[in-house]
Amino acid sequence: MTDFAALRRLVRATVHETFSVPATYYHGDMSVPVDLSVRRFYEATDSGDFQGQYARRLGNLDRIAFSRAECEAKAAPLLRTGLLTFKDTDEVFRLDHQDPSDGSDIVMWSVTASNHGR
């Protein structure tokens, strides 16, 4: 029988690898920015009526998933107020706080849009 925790880690790593996008991470303690692969998470809201007609609407980007192993391998400690720039859109986000760990290799951070450059 396969260990469920190991299987969950494998699936999450596969999802991260498949759906991640390139970004550049930087904080004031670093001499140069670091390229990372991250996943975007958008807030979602449901709205509808009493007849059961509902729609899910995506809102602002509010969380970003990082690979702990990649950050450690690239000596990129994730710190509050660090800046992440998505290479495909040039959008910049500031790390606010790290979500509680679920024991996997994926590290989730809540973020806010920033008007700072790289």
What do these coordinates show?
This protein is of the alpha+beta class and 118 residues long. The chain has a single domain, classed as Thrombin, subunit H. 19% of the residues lie in helices and 46% in strands. The chain has two helices and six strands. The chain has a six-stranded antiparallel β-barrel. The protein starts with a helix and ends in a 5-residue tail after the last strand. The mean pLDDT is 85.
What are the SSEs and their pairings?
Blueprint: H1 4-19, E1 21-26, E2 34-48, E3 54-67, H2 68-73, E4 83-86, E5 92-98, E6 106-113
Antiparallel strand pairs: 1-2, 1-4, 2-3, 3-6, 4-5, 5-6
Summed up, the helix count is: 2
Unreliable sequence segments: none
Strand order of the largest sheet: 1-2-3-6-5-4
> So what's the oligomer here?
single chain
Using DSSP, what is the number of strands? 6
The tally of domains stands at: 1
The mean pLDDT is: 85
Question: What overall form do the CA principal axes indicate?
Answer: globular
- Rg value: 16 Å
Strand content: over 45%
Per CATH, what is the topology? Thrombin, subunit H
Amino- and carboxy-terminal Cα gap:
48 Å
Q: Main beta sheet, described?
A: 6 strands, antiparallel, barrel
Classify the secondary structure makeup into a structural class. alpha+beta
**SSE pattern:** HEEEHEEE
Report helical residue fraction: 10-25%
Which descriptors apply to this entry?
6 strands, globular, Thrombin, subunit H, six-stranded antiparallel beta barrel, 2 helices, 118 residues, alpha+beta
